[in-house]
Amino acid sequence: MRLAQPEDADALAEISRRSLHYAWSERDFLITIKNPQAKVYLAEGSDGAAGYVVLYHAADEGEIASVGVHPSQRRRGIGSRILGYMMEQCGTFGVKKLFLEVRESNDAAQGLYESFGFLRVGVRKDFYDSPKEDAFLMMRIL
């Protein structure tokens, strides 16, 4: 696990394209990697980039903006390991509370986040498109 660098942006965008309905572009990752209020953590496997998590932070709060695991690397614990690593790192820059949104229908992701102690604290009506769907707002105190 490590912080992503600009040269990782293409691989990150490929994971996003293969993982998310609304994928992040290489440019999105480049902008985020250079943002001092963001961290992009990269998990590497034997074939290169395996997964990532994007965290935005300000003051003592953080928001997990995107998580992706390459389809060929799923069911290997990469999502758990990278989330755990990111959460360990939060203390080094003062984050004490984490937030995220997850699709109401994404039971697997909800289960992962709940296993890390995230609690459902709200609903964002019609947050997602294609299909239109509510998001659960989840939070964890570190």
Protein architecture, described:
The protein is an alpha+beta fold and 142 residues long. It has one domain: Gcn5-related N-acetyltransferase (GNAT) (Aminopeptidase, 3-Layer(aba) Sandwich). 30% of the residues lie in helices and 39% in strands. It has four helices and seven strands, in the order βααβββαβαββ. The two termini are 20 Å apart. The model has no long low-confidence stretch (mean pLDDT 93).
Low-confidence parts: none
The CATH architecture is 3-Layer(aba) Sandwich
Strands across the major sheet, in which order? Answer: 1-2-3-4-5-7-6
**Span between N and C termini?**
20 Å
Structural class: alpha+beta
Number of domains: 1
Per DSSP, the total helix count is 4
Number of strands: 7
Order of helices and strands: EHHEEEHEHEE
Q: How big is the Rg?
A: 14 Å
* Percentage of residues in strands: 35-45%
- Helix proportion range: 25-40%
Q: Characterize the largest beta sheet: strand count, sense, and whether it forms a barrel.
A: 7 strands, mixed
CATH topology: Aminopeptidase
Mean pLDDT: 93
Could you name the CATH homologous superfamily? Gcn5-related N-acetyltransferase (GNAT)
CATH class: Alpha Beta
Oligomer kind: single chain
Shape: globular
Write a brief caption for the model.
Helix content is 30%, strand content 39%.
Please write out the topology.
Blueprint lengths: L1 E2 L5 H11 L6 H9 L3 E8 L2 E11 L2 E9 L8 H13 L6 E7 L3 H9 L3 E10 L4 E9 L1
Helix pairs in contact: 1-2
